[in-house]
Each structure stands twice: as structure tokens, then as C-alpha cells.
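Support request from a user on the community tier.

User writes: "When I paste my C-alpha cells into the form, the page sometimes reloads and wipes my input. The last time it worked, I copied everything first. Here is what I submitted, just in case something in the input itself triggers the reload:"
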């Protein structure tokens, strides 16, 4: 059975329109404040999102993610650049005329309205006929598994249920574009995980809806997004599929931000195919050299990126291992994270995640085995050690 939310009338068309990105930011700059006190919260930001894509805007606090989303929704005005929806320039359009669904962290439900009236709010504002409102509200509540709660007030719902209602309210207007600004940030860890699964289900049920998902949580970005846009200091630094950014990080920032990484400064030696010999001090390692391999000319300084879970902590002198001193140990439930000073890699502490609860006293000597190949090469934007 077709889902009514996936086939809004506005999208049904017999003629093929020229393919325009669903969302386009063209060199958008947003500044807050005036004169000397002004800060660029978004700087020369360019991004194209195809129809039906889910893009995560991922970055640390203050990197400009929410500002990008607000510029698209019309809540802030760019000082330069244009914002387009399906090719239409909406930069000067008020928010209500953009036809975008927005979900924010704080739910923002009307406390005195029952769930069904909260969900109907945007439809009434758009003067949709009453019979259609009833149908759309019940479709939207069904999408988020909240049909049984239509008569409740927001205060009679849990945080997760309130956020589902907020999502239903955004979906009820059948938007082409849905913006989600840290929608799970107010929920506890267990609930966040189950909501990620619900959002995956929703994303799959709405293949024509373009979603822009703002988060600082890399696991949410990896789970939900077809592509991840990494932001730092008001700018886009990297964009790619979750798999690309994870397994072949284009920059040390992205390598570190997506899940933690040991970044070892190295010098590239001989490259053969996608394998490179690299030297770190007097030690040689084999790294994988992602395409385009012309970046890895002999003598180039680079980072060798090794994920903590790829490191093996062994006994001292175990075959193929380097000697190391334990400088820290934190049990994290499923894993124990060790911080290690490896002999011959001065000024560099490496992190290793070991399954289960493992004890090695601080200052004890252990062996550490690197994966094979040892890691993936990452371009060094600045000086490496
Ligand atoms: N209304 C405002 N007035 C002045 N400065 C602002 C305003 N809103 C945001 N900023 C500043 O703009 C920068 C970007 O903020 P933004 O909220 O876009 O970041 P963010 O990446 O979404 O951060 P977070 O993850 O903490 O929400 C920050 O330095 C912030 O302090």
C-alpha cells in the first residue's frame, strides 16, 4: 500500500523538470552582531543536497550547523550568498512561505493544545480543508507510532513521545524538505538509540523527502545520513558518504571528529598501488594510501590514522609488537580504553580499545600491535610531528 505521506500532490508531475538540487546553499555568509563585535557564524558556505538525500551537518559546538539550518528555514538572513529550494531562490522569502518542516531539540509543542491540535497547527494556518486536516493528522501520527496519543496534552507524554509529536507536526504539512536540529539532544542515551532506529525507519518510508540533520553526535550522523558534511569554524571542511569519511578521512579534523583516531605524523616513502611505506622516526610502517595516490609523493609529510579499536594490546615482547608504557586506563563497559606511550614514538600518546574489562596498571609495560596495513594516510594540512 502506498504511503500518502510519500506522494504529495505537489510532487506528482508528468513532465521531467530539469534536475535541480533539492537544497542549495550558494556561498552563504551569516554574521551576528555589527561592526567590530560581529562574528561570522557561517562563512562562504556552499552545499548541494539532492532530492531524497539525508545529509548530516556534523561539527563541534559553535561551528555554525544551526545557523546553516536557520538560514535555510528563513530564521536568519544571510549577509551574502543565496539559498535555493529546488532551484527557487528563497533567500528573501519569509519562513512560512518556504514549505519546510522544522524539528528542534526542545520539541516546542504548544502546552495547552492536545497532540492532534499541535499536529494540525500548521495545516490550519495554511487553511487546509477540515476533512483533509483530520486525514493528514492521523497519517502523520501513524508515521511516528503515536496514533493512540492524539487526545493527550504534551505534559502527559514522555520526552521521546513529545519529540515524535514534534516530528509528526513537521511531517503533517508534507514538506519536501525536513530540517532536524539536534532532535535527540534532550533525550537520555537509551532513548536516543531507539529514536535513531525510528528516524531510520521514517527516512526509508519517505524516500522523496530531503532531510538535513544537524548533530554533534557522530554516531547519529553515521547511522542516518547518506552523506555527512563536516563543519568547523563556520565553514564546511569535508563532505562524503559516512563510509568514505570513516575509512578514508580527507583531513585530520574529520578523522578525529568521526569516532576518535590516533594520528601519527609520518613521512611517505615508496608508494606501490594503494600501499605506502612510511617512516616515523626510525621505524617503518605500511599504510594504505587512498586515491588519488599522486598526493603521496615520496617525502610528503602526512598523518597515519589508526582507530583505537584496531590496536591490539599484547604482552611485552609478543611477536610483531612494539613495547609501550601504560599511561591511562578507563573501563567503559564493553571496552577498556588504554592510553599508551609507545617506545620510539616520542611526544605521542596512542589510544587502544580492548574488548571487555582488562587491567594493566599505570606505568606497567605492555606490547602493542598495529593493524596491517598499519593505518590509512591522511593529508597533513598543517605541520605534522
Ligand atoms: N543569535 C546569535 N547572536 C550572536 N551570536 C550567535 C547567535 N547565534 C549563534 N551565534 C554564534 O554563532 C556561532 C555558530 O553558532 P551555531 O548555533 O550555528 O553553532 P552550532 O554548530 O549549531 O553549535 P551547537 O552545536 O552548540 O548548537 C557561535 O559562535 C555562536 O556563539
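"...and here is what came back when it finally went through:"
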Amino acid at each position: 500500500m502506498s504511503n500518502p505521506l510519500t506522494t504529495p500532490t505537489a510532487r506528482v508531475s508528468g513532465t521531467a523538470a530539469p534536475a535541480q538540487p533539492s537544497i542549495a546553499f550558494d556561498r552563504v555568509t551569516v554574521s551576528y552582531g555589527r561592526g567590530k563585535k560581529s562574528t561570522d557564524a557561517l562563512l562562504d558556505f556552499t552545499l548541494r543536497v539532492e532530492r531524497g538525500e539525508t545529509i548530516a551537518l556534523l561539527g563541534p559546538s559553535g561551528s555554525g550547523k544551526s545557523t546553516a539550518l536557520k538560514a535555510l528555514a528563513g530564521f536568519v538572513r544571510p549577509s551574502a550568498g543565496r539559498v535555493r529550494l529546488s532551484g527557487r531562490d528563497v533567500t528573501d522569502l519569509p519562513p512560512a512561505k518556504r514549505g519546510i518542516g522544522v524539528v528542534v531539540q526542545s520539541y516546542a509543542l504548544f502546552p495547552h493544545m492536545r497532540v492532534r491540535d499541535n499536529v494540525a497547527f500548521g495545516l490550519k494556518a495554511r487553511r487546509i480543508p477540515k476533512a483533509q486536516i483530520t486525514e493528514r493528522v492521523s497519517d502523520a501520527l501513524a508515521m511516528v507510532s503515536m496514533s493512540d496519543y492524539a487526545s493527550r496534552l504534551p505534559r502527559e507524554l514522555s520526552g521521546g513521545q513529545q519529540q515524535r509529536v514534534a516530528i509528526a507536526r513537521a511531517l503533517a504539512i508534507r514538506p519536501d524538505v525536513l530540517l532536524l536540529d539536534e532532535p535527540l539532544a534532550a533525550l537520555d542515551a537509551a532513548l536516543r538509540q531507539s529514536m535513531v532506529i525510528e528516524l531510520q525507519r521514517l527516512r526509508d518510508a519517505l524516500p522523496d523527502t530531503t532531510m538535513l540533520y544537524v548533530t554533534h553526535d557522530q554516531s547519529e550522523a553515521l547511522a542516518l545520513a547518506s552523506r555527512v558534511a563536516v563543519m568547523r569554524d563556520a565553514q564546511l571542511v569535508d563532505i562524503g558518504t559516512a563510509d568514505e569519511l570513516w575509512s578514508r578521512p580527507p583531513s585530520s579534523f574529520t578523522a578525529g571528529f568521526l569516532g576518535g583516531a590516533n594520528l601519527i605524523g609520518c613521512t611517505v616513502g615508496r608508494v606501490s598501488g594503494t600501499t605506502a611505506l612510511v617512516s616515523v622516526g626510525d621505524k617503518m610502517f605500511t599504510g594504505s594510501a587512498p586515491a588519488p595516490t599522486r598526493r603521496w609523493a615520496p617525502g610528503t609529510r602526512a598523518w597515519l590514522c589508526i582507530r583505537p579499536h584496531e590496536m591490539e594490546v599484547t604482552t611485552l615482547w609478543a611477536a610483531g609488537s612494539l613495547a609501550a608504557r601504560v599511561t591511562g586506563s578507563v573501563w567503559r563497559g564493553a571496552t577498556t580504553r588504554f592510553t599508551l606511550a609507545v617506545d620510539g614514538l616520542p611526544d605521542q600518546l596512542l589510544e587502544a580499545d580492548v574488548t571487555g574489562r582488562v587491567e594493566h596498571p599505570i606505568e606497567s609495560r605492555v606490547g602493542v600491535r598495529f593493524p596491517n596495513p598499519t593505518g590509512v594516510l591522511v593529508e597533513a594540512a598543517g605541520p605534522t610531528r
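Agent notes: The reload is a front-end session timeout and is unrelated to the input. The pocket of adenosine-5'-triphosphate is lined by residues 32-33, 39, 41, 59, 61-67, 216 (CB under 6 Å). The helical segments are 65-73, 115-125, 130-143, 159-172, 189-205, 218-224, 242-247, 252-257. Escalated to web team.
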